[in-house]
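Deliverable D5.2: sample structural annotation.
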Amino acid sequence: MKAKTFERKFDEGKDITGSLDLTKARRPLQEQKRVNVDFPAWMVERLDREAKRVGVTRQSIIKVWLAERLEHTALNKSLNADASDTGTG
């Protein structure tokens, strides 16, 4: 199928998944990389309690909290940069 035909079908909302080779599909910035982190025992106990409270695994709660913190940090940096650019910071 030519690119123009593919794009037209996509733009028309038609199902194009049959034209894709999904065996090679990748999600950018979503590749997994294993890291080892040592936590004090008290921290692991609290993580386990919180994970149990919300019904997820320890690993999931760590991922969610780290992602939230990274998003928060990136947002603050962006806001601070904007304030600096406008002379209000």
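Annotation notes: Residues 56 and 81 are 36 Å apart (CA to CA). The chain has a mean pLDDT of 89.
The annotation will be released with the project's public dataset once the embargo ends.
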